[in-house]
Amino acid sequence: MNAKQKTEALTAWLDERLSISTLAGMVSKKEVPLHRHSIWYYFGGMTLFLFTVQVVTGILLLLYYRPSAENAFESVQFIVTEVKFGWLIRSIHSWSANLMIATLFIHMFSVFFLRAYYPPREITWISGVLLLFLVICFGFSGYLLPWNKLAFFATKVGTEIAGVVPIVGRPMLRFLRGGDDVTGATLTRFFGFHVAVLPATATVLIAVHVLLVQLHGMSVPPGLAGQPVKKMKFVPNFLLRDLIGWILAIGVLAALAALFPWELGEKADAFAPAPAGIKPEWYFLFMFQTLKYLPPKIGRFDGEVIGIMAFNFIALLLFVVPFVDRPPQDKRKTLIFNLIGIAALLFIVVLTIVGYVT
Amino acid sequence: MNLNRDAAIMPRWLAGIILQIAMILLVFATAFAQKKSSCIECHARLDDPRLSAPAKLFDNDIHHARGLSCNDCHGGDPNADAKEAAKDPRKGYLGRPKTLDIPAYCGKCHSDANLMKRFNPSLRVDQEREYYTSVHGKLLKSGETRVATCISCHSVHGIRAITDPLSSVYPSNVAETCSKCHASADYMRGFGIPSDQFDKYKTSVHAKALYDKQDLSAPTCNDCHGNHGATPPGIASVANVCGQCHARQAELFQTSPHKAAFDQKQLGECITCHSNHAISRPGDQMIGTNNGSLCINCHKAEDKGFVAAGRMRSRIDELIASIDKSTAILNTAERAGMEVSRPKFELKDATDALTHARVLIHSSSTDEVEKVIGPGLQVSAKGYEAGLAALAERRFRREGLAISLIFILFLAGLVYLKIRQIEGRQATED
Amino acid sequence: MGNTAWDKTTKNRDYPAPQPNSRRRFLDYLLGTSALATLGAIIYPIFRFMSPPQVIESAENSVVAAKLSEIPVNSGKIFKFGNKPGILVRSATGDFKAFSAVCTHLECIVQYRADTKQIWCACHNGQYNLSGKNIGGPPPRPLEEFQVNPRGDDVVVTRS
Predict the structure, then answer these.
(1) Cβ of A237 and B423 within 8 Å?
(2) Suppose B43 and one of A244, B55, B67, C26 were both cysteines; which one would form an S-S bond, judging by CB atoms 3.0 to 4.6 Å apart?
(3) What is the ipTM of this complex?
(4) Where do the domains of chain C lie, and which CATH numbers do they carry?
(5) Cβ–Cβ gap A247/C51 under 8 Å
């Protein structure tokens, strides 16, 4: 048999056992609408690709990382200096985390503005919001793992903020920190979250999210509903375009790792005072900056507590978006929601910039 | 109530109450009562500050804290209110001691081991004897009253424990106390010694350690001169005094050819090069054969010492240059984003070798110095290699990146061509 | 195939004529080899990463300070403990003691003196006894003590 026949025989053998032809059939039918806003369709897949990069580089880092206060910093130093290409894997992991969060935000905002949460896609939206929170937790827990001064204090401040919430704040702080202070216990627990709990949850949520997208197909923006829309086959046309994006993303990650290697910093010291001008990572910066601007007291309550509760409330509001904004659209509702979205986007962008500049 | 029951002056119950009150008052009275001291009571009320000061200062005095009072030193009767009765010589009143008698006055107790045992068994009791071996003591014995006695340093009537930071003899206050006399050119006239010691001391590293860094182990006047037996160390014993802390340098000096030479030439050990009071941080310019070095003050061109000095200095300079070069390249690598904290740490060994070499010059032996310079240069060279390796790795990464990017862009381009090819086919296939 | 909106519009596009088989095969060949090369360029660093480096272990919470045979009775040895120097002392009675070698006065490196059987700092004549306590000279605090466990020929020092 020649190669072609051999491949066909193999495919038939697998199909008998795994029913891949049905799967292949489903995939071949998937189509992507083409219109003015189609570019945003790439960002979901890009986020998933970057997540895969995280999983692969994360597993590789696991081969050498040691999650205890005495060893963590030295083990990362070891990876970056002694292990072959350790510098590359580690820097890619750190940069890809940031890029993933950026594409995730773009994906979320584009879904919002294009109303891709309209029925029957409400649960897809909810799973997406849950994924947003999960990824933020990934970022927060992962940041501590090198156990350097910056991360130590960022974690201290971050968990302190969590503790400010009334009633549940204190127990939550103790749960997160593994005690009253940030110690080696915090590191071990964050490591457990970062490599076991969060990945397991994320796998389930991503599976649900992606399956639902396949089930419902790609949504078309409401403005174009009813009109005939050009469609592109997912396989191979859109997928190849996706692939170009992913290949370029690999290039960007390699460039970032080589030209802007991620810093190691200095080993954390529980007794040293906090370095001046401490800031969280950029994706937390807008909230951090907002808290700085709140007055110390609002009425009877601490300004900080009000701020944090407000952010929590807004986060919860995200869940109800598909239930508050439903078709049929009217011009006023469209305008209001678009304005809310733009306001939120501007708020985040402006405060992030302010946070960096001041 | 039957007032006539006991036919007493007052009813029993009233007597009971009065007795209770009286007892309470007595308890309070005894509780608050100091030993009565008419001296303090009277002197505190006087207008002349010279007479009222002792009474006022005495509250802070350590003797007062130990339960002693005016009469324990001055004699007299503290219970008598009238001046003549209180100051009665028959009651042992000694009055104010003359300057020449002060050491004996204090020594009445402080030289009595049996007495001092009752208050603090670990206190020395030979201060008075030691005092008379000091320059102050010797001059006092010869009748000179313008010298320091016990009260000049320890003050009088408000004497604090030596561990009390407010005490005039607490380590950080000693130099000021000595300068009360020794820094005054007028006062020191006729004694034949300079009066600029404190000014000079204040510029020294020891003063910086003591005053700026609060290092109480840093030497002040009494650490080198002694306190009760205060005498400048003899020329041949300076190394011993400095060697209390700078043991290694003293040891090296004692076994070096300089010891005999200095003693013979009547040159002060240590202080000839480092000065006595204005001891500044030593620098490499002090050794060698250039202008500004101290060696050429004695050594002439091409004599053995001259050659040794030149050699030691040049080797030290070599090590410094090597360390600087290695530090510079490691810093460059670090700024470029490379991880070089380990090589930087290991380079510290070279700096340690440099410090060690600078100590070893006191042996005046080029061989001794060479024993540490050699390994130091090796460590520094290793650091330099590490820096070169880091920069090479950086170059490798960038070259690797450039090549990978070319491949990646090439691949992306091919995928794009493939898309066009497929869609071209799709468009025409029908 | 044929009547969807996609087909209707793509038919009007200006596509190049379908390429001859050889050109298509060349593109496929190039694509295939390129993809393989890139995949290799990704897999190669991953495999190199996974293979253990020369220096096996990273952090030093515990280090082999010396070999039993190379440290005689009544002697001391300076060893590297993480980022800081440590001193291992074998006393005259044969016991092992280990301390931080950083003097608590001005951070010089201390040494063991076989003549006084004490730990000594050459910078300003500071002295420590074999419990690490500062007993003479300027040092204000004792030396930090570590745990010592001889294991076979290795003398292992652990941060307690």
Answers:
(1) yes
(2) B55
(3) 0.85
(4) 5-50 (no CATH), 62-158 (2.102.10.10)
(5) no
